[in-house]
Amino acid sequence: EVQLVESGGGLVQPGGSLRLSCAASGFVFSAYRMSWVRQAPGKGVEWIATVNGAGDNSNYADSVRGRFTISRDNSKKTAYLQMNDLKHEDTAVYYCERDGRRGQGTQVTVSS
């Protein structure tokens, strides 16, 4: 059974940083690209970033490019999202995603 468990969210001030983790199980982790998406209150799901299976190619939404970094450690079956220079508009529930499957999400709140 595919399982994705996100962690690392929390409350942070504008300009701060957080690192999200996504622990995966139930599939050959290195064989799949992984993505992070988010959903802000009252809004639809927004794709943020994707990393390929090897971890050597990534893509970002314009809204986060230059501030967020997606990565993965295939030996730990874990994907990461390093978020720097956080803004109020980054407040959302963040999910890791594999082919449309998501975990339970982790809340990120950016507030002073």
TL;DR of this structure?
By secondary structure, this protein is mainly β. It has strands spanning 3-7, 10-12, 18-25, 34-39, 45-51, 58-60, 68-73, 78-83, 92-98, 101-102, 106-110.
Structure characterization notes:
With about 110 residues, the chain is mainly β. It contains no helices and 11 strands. The chain has strands at about 5, 10, 20-25, 35-40, 45-50, 60, 70-75, 80-85, 90-100, 100, 105-110. Strands 2, 4, 5, 6, 9, 10 and 11 form a 7-stranded mixed sheet that branches. A 4-stranded antiparallel sheet has the order 1-3-8-7, with no helix packed on it. A hairpin with a 5-residue loop joins strand 4 (about 35-40) and strand 5. The radius of gyration is 13 Å and the shape is globular.
Q: Count the strands? A: 11
Write down the overall geometry: globular
Low-confidence stretches: none
Largest sheet, described in full? 7 strands, mixed
Mean pLDDT: 97
- The amount of helix comes to under 10%
The Rg value, from CA coordinates, equals 13 Å
Query: How would you spell out the order of helices and strands?
Result: EEEEEEEEEEE
What percentage of the residues does DSSP assign to strands (E)?
Answer: over 45%
Task: Give the helix/strand class.
Answer: mainly beta
Distance between the termini: 40 Å
Oligomer: single chain
